[in-house]
Design a protein that fits this description.
- It is a single chain.
- The protein has 449 residues and is α/β, with parallel strands linked by helices.
- The protein folds into two domains: 232 residues, Orthogonal Bundle (Transferase(Phosphotransferase), domain 1); 197 residues, Vaccinia Virus protein VP39 (Rossmann fold, 3-Layer(aba) Sandwich).
- Strand 9, helix 13 and strand 10 form a beta-alpha-beta unit.
- The longest helix is centred in the first third of the chain and has 20 residues.
- The mean pLDDT is 90.
Length: 449
């Protein structure tokens, strides 16, 4: 896979080319591309010279996914939808003589609130008598995180910590005993862990034994259906958090909310926006206001409960222009994978021309101890126009946060310090408007050219 001048290309060798020809001939592939479950893919008439020189025989071009995201940035519901997509496509491929060679959530992206499978090279022709080799990976990277999430165990930090997922043994040892002993969990976690320990150092010809035992499509199909049944039954029942009910915004009156929404809409409307980045979106109300003048929006929040609810609402309305993600601005993901280059840092994957930072500055500066100059430096690095809501030191929420800190921790939080940082980092203040309550200022900041 490579990017060239805004295009996404994939090079295939002779074996992969034959697999793709078999995939092209299937009914399910055309239908899945048509309904958006598989990324739109075209075979190029000629292999680009730089690829042909390296021996590649076929080149494909994929539609571009606006923003790449990773599993640890998803909510439970998003990971669950991605898992079901993997199982559905694998079974449909099986019905037409193909199989997926792996089963990692990194093969799935989200176009807005809809999952789309992007790894065309994962499909290969089925070899009779062989198992589904994606089973272990599916368990480690899909099923086991979902099982832990359904049990109330935080799974996203674990998945962020390793691209290999959560092993059966780790999952078994972490799950509460009552969940561990459920028949479906025992089969895919307990027995799986036992088998891995039992045969870890074995030199047995497992493939040969499976062929002799009559491994075939019917057995794989039954395995896929059992997994689907388990995944469908898993649900996350989170407790309320400090911000999951923030959509009610009890500390705002209607006049403030209306004025804030009008300010965002006006700033967004100055010109058409290709991509809006809402840093602290919560329920997505102001993301929607900016989206009226944009092609695409990324709605971030550190609160997984709020983002999960936002995703559910977006999914219900079939929204493909808003991507909700769980990202902590105080600790966004860096680059990782092979040589720390395989997968990009979060801020290298977004290219906004409008950023919203609403009711977040005081949390970063006071709760997370980030100097105001650093908050503005983060915004400046994004290189776009920015709308900022700045609660003043007199704001009740600011006073509440400051009361939890030592006096000197919140001493440098004031309007003058913020505005000095704005000018120092290359912004001009196009508009500065107080909300009706008088304790919050709205800024329309424009990057100097």
């Amino acid at each position: 896979m490579l990017r060239r001048n805004g295009r996404v290309l994939r090079a295939l060798d002779a074996t992969a080319a034959a697999d793709f020809e078999a995939l092209e001939a299937t009914k399910f592939f055309a239908e899945a591309v048509e309904d958006g479950r598989i990324v739109a893919t075209r075979r190029l008439a000629e292999v680009p010279a730089e690829l042909a020189r390296d021996g590649w025989v076929v080149a494909l071009e994929h539609d571009v996914v606006p923003v790449i995201s990773y599993p640890f940035e998803w909510t439970f519901a998003m990971l669950r939808e991605a898992a079901l997509l993997q199982l559905d496509l694998t079974e449909q491929a099986l019905d037409e003589g193909l199989i997926t060679k792996d089963a990692t959530p990194y093969n799935v992206q989200f176009l807005g609130a809809g999952p789309v499978f992007i790894d065309i090279g994962s499909f290969e022709r089925l070899t009779r008598g062989e198992p589904w080799f994606g089973y272990r990976q599916f368990c480690e990277q899909f099923l086991n995180p979902l099982l832990l999430g359904a049990a109330g165990v935080p799974w996203r930090p674990w998945v962020r910590g390793t691209t290999r997922g959560i092993t059966p043994a780790e999952c078994r040892d972490t799950l509460p005993l009552r969940r561990r002993m459920r028949p479906s969990v025992f089969a895919h976690v307990g027995l799986h862990a036992w088998a891995e320990r039992r045969f870890a150092a074995s030199s047995r010809d497992v493939r040969g034994e499976m062929r002799s035992a009559g491994m075939g499509p019917a057995v794989i199909r039954a395995q896929l259906r059992r997994l689907r049944k388990v995944v469908r039954r898993l649900h996350w029942r989170p407790r309320e958090t400090a911000w999951s009910g923030y959509g009610d915004r009890a500390h705002y009156d209607d006049a403030d909310l209306g004025a804030k929404e009008d300010f965002v809409r006006k700033a967004a409307a100055r010109r058409h926006r290709a991509q809006v980045l809402d840093l602290g979106a919560n329920d997505g109300r102001f993301t929607d206001a900016a989206l009226e003048h944009a092609d695409y929006a990324v709605a971030l929040d550190r609160d997984e409960v709020a983002v999960d609810r936002l995703y559910t609402r977006l999914r219900e309305r079939g929204e493909q222009r808003v991507l909700p993600l769980c990202v902590d601005l105080g600790d966004p993901s860096g680059s990782f994978g092979w040589r720390a280059r395989e997968r990009s840092a979060f801020f290298d994957r977004v290219h906004p021309d409008l950023v919203l930072l609403l009711a977040v500055v005081h949390h970063l500066a006071i709760t997370d101890n980030v100097p105001l100059s650093e908050v503005v430096a983060m915004l400046a690095a994004l290189g776009s126009d920015t709308v900022v809501e700045f609660p003043t030191p007199d704001d009740p929420m600011v006073q509440r946060l400051a009361a939890q800190k030592k006096d000197h921790d919140a001493r440098r939080y004031d309007v003058a310090t913020f505005e000095a940082a704005v000018g120092a980092h290359g912004f001009d203040v196009a508009e500065r408007t107080p909300l009706p309550s008088g304790t919050r200022l709205m800024y329309d900041l424009r990057r100097r050219t």
